[in-house]
TrEMBL record:
GO terms for cellular component: plasma membrane. It comes from the Bacteria. SUPFAM superfamilies: ATPase domain of HSP90 chaperone/DNA topoisomerase II/histidine kinase (SSF55874), Homodimeric domain of signal transducing histidine kinase (SSF47384). One of its GO terms (molecular function) is phosphorelay sensor kinase activity. Its EC number is 2.7.13.3. Residues 226-434 form the Histidine kinase domain. The chain crosses the membrane at residues 6-27. Pfam families: HAMP, HATPase_c, HisKA. It is a multi-pass membrane protein. This is histidine kinase. It catalyses: ATP + protein L-histidine = ADP + protein N-phospho-L-histidine. It comes from Pseudoduganella albidiflava. It is an enzyme of class 2 (transferase). Residues 166-218 form the HAMP domain.
Length: 434
């Protein structure tokens, strides 16, 4: 709110300043300098004495009247040569002066005017000018008045803008919160605004879009969940049938083919289980929070891995303390990372953990080929596999890392991929304080 209002404030003040300069130069171009007009008004009494009293005197009484004005006025009136005045004036002022007009000098608080254009006042009057000094000219007061007028206009604009930006910012904040909740998986989140709100049309369109997305995702999840459940029944029947067939088959070649088909069925069963796991993570079901011992959970996760040809180095210190979260889900994510590392490691996989200030860091390293930088974000997408991972024996289904990423994200943590000191890939789980 403060940032938005500050931007509006600066914009309005700059606009008013630019407008003031434009107005000043326009008036100066069309009607003359406004400050000079103010100074002329302040010196109106002295100009009136010159034009209506001194100038109306006969030729032999002109100097007498000028001397009488000198006696009663605090302004000093002097007669100076024209050449001196012309040197002091600019080109525009000199032209006005030669026409017999009164020329105001704001800096010296004085004025100049020719005595006579034709020498009728007295002998030599066409070669002299009147220089009136110490005129009652105070431009500071005029500038202060302009500044006050400027502030009043600025406040008159900023106050309604402030109220408008405040309500506008509140509506935007509400919309931002809805977008954050929706992006975090709360598909029921909607923006509730009144028709009179400034961004009501935008909120309605976002709500409509959110509704369509929710419908599509719910349909997709429902279909995935239903199909996965429905497939499990025929898979179970096929498993039973293959076992019976394998026991009754006497042909060795036939038994080998049946074993291969059982392997395919086992792979299909694993895929269905992974899909059901993905569906549960995408659902709105709450996590099963509990307090569990980190050291025991991580060591148990490492020891429950299937046997592999690569060595597993577990560096989980004693006394890491407890953590409050879904232990089953976090250990599944860690197990997926370890199994992934076992697939691609050449000879070694390392698991390490660190607990600091309530937060937890779990690291899985391997000495395999690693993951290219440009593909490190893509590997968390469902069913995405690297080109070298498309072999049936090592590639899996492309769901393990996706499940791990979702599990960590549900706990408010992050999962990053870096280059391991072992030469392969390093997966780092960062969990916030519980």
């Amino acid at each position: 709110m403060n940032r938005l209002f500050l931007r509006f404030f600066i914009l309005v003040m700059l606009s008013i300043s630019v407008a003031a300069f434009i107005v000043y130069f326009t008036i100066d171009r069309l009607f003359g300098d406004p400050l000079e007009n103010i100074a002329r008004n302040q010196a109106a009494a002295q100009i009136f004495l010159l034009e209506q009293y001194v100038d109306q005197a006969p030729a032999d009484g002109w100097l007498d009247r000028l001397n009488k004005v000198r006696e009663v006025s605090e302004v000093r009136f002097d007669l100076v040569p024209l050449a001196v005045v012309r040197e002091h004036l600019s080109n525009a002022e000199r032209a006005a002066f030669d026409r017999g007009e009164v020329v105001i000098d704001l800096a010296d608080r004085s004025l100049y005017r020719r005595v006579d254009l034709s020498g009728d006042r007295y002998i030599g009057s066409d070669e002299e000018a009147i220089h009136a000094q110490n005129l009652p000219i105070d431009i500071k007061v005029a500038l202060q008045m302009e500044a006050v007028r400027y502030l009043i206009v600025a406040l008159a604009l900023l106050v309604p803008i402030g109220f408008w930006s405040r309500s506008h910012w509140r509506s935007l904040q509400q919309l931002m919160k809805v977008a954050d909740r929706f992006g975090a998986g709360q598909l029921k989140a909607r923006a509730e605004m009144k028709p009179g709100d400034s961004i009501y049309p935008l909120a309605e369109r976002i709500n409509h879009m959110a509704g369509r997305i929710e419908t599509l995702l719910e349909s997709q999840r429902g279909l995935l969940h239903s199909v996965s459940h429905e497939i499990r029944t025929p898979i179970a029947r096929l498993e039973f049938a293959f076992e019976l067939l394998h026991d009754t088959a006497e042909d060795v070649l036939l038994q080998k083919r049946i074993g291969s088909m059982q392997g395919d069925l086992t792979e299909l069963k694993s895929l269905v289980n992974e899909l059901l796991g993905m569906a549960r993570l995408d659902s709105d079901q709450p996590l099963r929070y509990e307090t569990f011992d980190l050291t025991e959970a991580l060591r148990s996760c490492a020891h429950s891995l299937p046997p592999a040809t690569v060595s597993l180095d577990v560096s989980v210190p004693d006394g890491m303390g407890t953590y409050y979260g879904d232990c089953r889900l976090l250990m599944r994510a860690t197990g997926n990372l370890l199994r992934n590392a076992q697939k691609y490691a050449n000879s070694k996989v390392a698991l390490s953990a660190l607990s600091k200030l309530g937060g937890v860091t779990i690291t899985v390293d391997d000495d395999g080929p690693g993951i290219p930088e440009e593909e490190r974000e893509k590997v968390f997408e469902p069913f995405y596999r690297l080109d070298r991972s498309r072999d049936r024996n090592t590639g899996g289904f492309g769901l393990g890392l996706s499940i791990a990423g979702k599990a960590i994200s549900l706990h408010g943590g992050s999962l990053k991929i870096e280059t391991s000191p072992l030469g392969g890939a390093r997966f780092t789980i960062s969990l916030p304080p519980a």
